[in-house]
Amino acid sequence: MNPPLARALRGAGIDTIDVAARLGVDPKTVQRWMAGRMPYPRHRDALARLTGWSPHDLWPALPRPVEPATQRDEVMIVYPHRSAVPPDSWSRLFGQAQQEIDILAYSALFLAEDIEISSLLRSKAEAGVRVRIALGEPAGKHIADRGGEEHIGDGMSARIRTALIGLRPVVAAGAELRLHDTVLYNSIYRADDELLVNTQVHGHPASHAPVLHLRRRSAEGMATTYLDSFERVWATGRESKA
User: Fold this and answer.
1) Which candidate, 115, 113, 167, 114, places its Cα nearest to that of 136?
2) Which of 131, 109, 133 is closest to 206 using CA atoms?
């Protein structure tokens, strides 16, 4: 029995004989539909028109059509961990920036120690691209907590201090630097409308956590949510000259 179809026909004041006559089928065929057999697509469409119900309301198990890629699709690729991101992806990301580069992390040491990346960030700042870098406050409570979670003690603070030294030329070229003491759920690396978002997993270093490569498609999407998160942390940070 197909209760949705039965309710829809009753609501429209139509019985099986009426349906058979209007669709040009045998009444037994309609009875089989009522018993649960799926009609052919043309008959499903006709029944939807007769009852005013949508096909998916009449047959809840009907497969949903696969929607083609649209402007709302934002996830370009998912990497199982940060070390799976091809090394040149970072330089491609920042190299394409024309307006903004944002970095939110605790240390981002892997970038600060990369001569190519630090030189690229410096040249972008010199060219007028707004470069904002938000790193963890070395003496912050949440940085100490993170070090404890990863069983590295003061190692997290040491990484941040090392990264700050490596980023001095970038800041000297015009990049803005702030230090924050927040619970960091994701590290965010943004170049205009593209982002690499390194998720955080309790007890594991960021390099072992998945990375999402996103492209902002709208003001309501996933990428915008992460960008809003960056702005919130940025607003709470204190300015620093590295």
Assistant:
1) 167
2) 109
User: Exposure pattern of 147-178 as b/e (b: 16+ CB <10 Å)?
Assistant: beebeeeeebbebbeebbebbbebbebebbbb
Domains of the chain: 3-58 (1.10.260), 75-239 (3.30.870.10)
Q: In angstroms, rounded to a whole number, what is the distance separating the alpha carbons of residues 107 and 206?
A: 10
Spacing of C-alpha 138 from chain mean position: 29
Maximal CA-CA distance, the chain: 84
Residue 78 is classified by DSSP as E
Q: Which two tokens stand for residue 38?
A: 């799926």
Look up the pTM and report it. Answer: 0.67
On whether the CB atoms of residues 159 and 109 are closer than 8 A, the answer is: yes
Q: Is the dihedral of CA 231, 235, 237, 238 positive or negative?
A: positive
Q: Which of 166, 199, 171 is nearest to 184 (CA)?
A: 199
pLDDT digits (tens, 9 = 90+) for 155-187: 788 899 999 999 999 999 999 999 999 988 899
Q: Which residue has the higher pLDDT, 198 or 241?
A: 198
Burial class (CB in 10 A: 0-12, 13-18, 19+), 66: exposed
State the Cα–Cα distance between residues 189 and 134, nearest whole angstrom: 10
